[in-house]
Amino acid sequence: MTQDTGDRAAQHPIDGILDILNEAVLGGTPGQGTAFLDGTRADGSGNHGLLATLATVDAVQASHDVNGTSIAGHARHTAFHLEVIVRWERDGDRGPFDWKGSFLPEQVEADEWIAVQTRLKDAYEAVVAFARSRRDAPVDGDVTGGLSGAVAHVAYHLGSIRQMVKVVS
């Protein structure tokens, strides 16, 4: 569903939302401008997306208490939120959801920290797959709203985590 706008076809709303979610989770495309993150240099350095940010800390740092929370807790919660987006939009699962519990446990061992990061990457990929499956369907405000909410939520936690990294590093 694209419209001709003269020189180029209009971007599908889902693709636009996924571009911003991709930047929040994976960082900018090397050497390209970004919508809201610091630019990723052509050599790939300077990536400040969520997964790259999490990869800069170890399990001890991720478990460090920062004003009653931890990087690991925020990462778990963000993964949970992305999982809920898919369950809500694709499966019609309306909960209840344990939002408070989704931050727990806030402390991780090394293998658990790797598992949290993998869970987050998998949850992101599930949201992307779901969104792409909806590209040929009529534009649905519930779906685009849910995906937009995912972008805002990931960006919020990315900002929180980036601030906590400054404390624990």
TrEMBL record:
Q: Which InterPro entries match?
A: DinB/YfiT-like (IPR034660)
- Taxonomically, the superkingdom here is Bacteria
Q: What name has this protein been given in UniProt?
A: DinB family protein
Q: Which organism is it from?
A: Deinococcus rufus
**Organism lineage:** Bacteria, Thermotogati, Deinococcota, Deinococci, Deinococcales
